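EI: anyone free to look at a 178-residue chain?
SC: sure, send it
EI:
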Amino acid sequence: MEHQLDDIIAIFNQCFEQEYNTKLVKGGEEPLYVPANENCPYHAIYFARGFYSSALHEISHWLVAGKERRKLEDFGYWYEPDGRSAERQREFEKVEVKPQAIEWILATAAGFRYFASSDNLNGNPGDTQPFKQAVYEQVKIYAEKGLPKRAETLRNALAIFYGTENRINLANFDVTKI
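SC: here you go
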């Protein structure tokens, strides 16, 4: 199945544009979240380079962000570019567990391949297996306790659109393949 950018944009915008005044927008080189301001009347999630996987990743950060964080550019998160030390990489991974668990769930609902991202191409990410395991453990928590409301709304819409199983089935998640 080929995944079209127009599809993920339409699905996201259909789910959230009216209630949350938020749109998914194909962006440039770097992803960016910009709250509504004098130049743009809606909150914009820009995903990088027209990649479907980038759209899912940036959406996942929006889905994790609470109401106050959604008022801040890039949700107020610190970002240290590629080349992070092993210690800084572990800090980075701690804040990525929940978004990447949601990303994996959304990707599965869309029938799309998920790869855990250490986002440290020019640095030494070190042993990524504990991070991948933490993401999987968070998927298990979401499977047991349910997703947050907005994440469940999108997961359901993706499953319906792509004709995939409309639940979080742990049999579809294999930590050794991410």
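EI: The chain has two domains: 5-76, 86-177.
SC: 👍
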